[in-house]
Design a protein that fits this description.
26% strand; 66 residues; alpha/beta; three-stranded parallel β-sheet
Length: 66
């Protein structure tokens, strides 16, 4: 069975120290796809960057024209 976590915040600064380790550990445990959610412009940029770095990560971003 493949597991897809549809709502994560691995782009949050609390993961700055061990983000790669956390992501790899969870992937190894069977969660093989993640959606990283951006809740502001800065975190949305980080979500996009994570999606570029890991082929199993997708990003959902917040857009504001303001």
């Amino acid at each position: 069975m493949e597991l897809f976590d549809t709502h994560t915040h691995y782009n949050d600064e609390k993961f700055d120290e061990d983000r790669d380790d956390v992501i790899k550990r969870i992937y190894k445990e069977g969660v093989t796809k993640f959606a990283v959610i951006g809740d502001n412009v800065e975190n949305s940029k980080k979500a996009i960057q994570l999606a570029k770095e890991y082929e199993f990560i997708y990003s959902a971003v917040r857009y504001s024209s303001k």
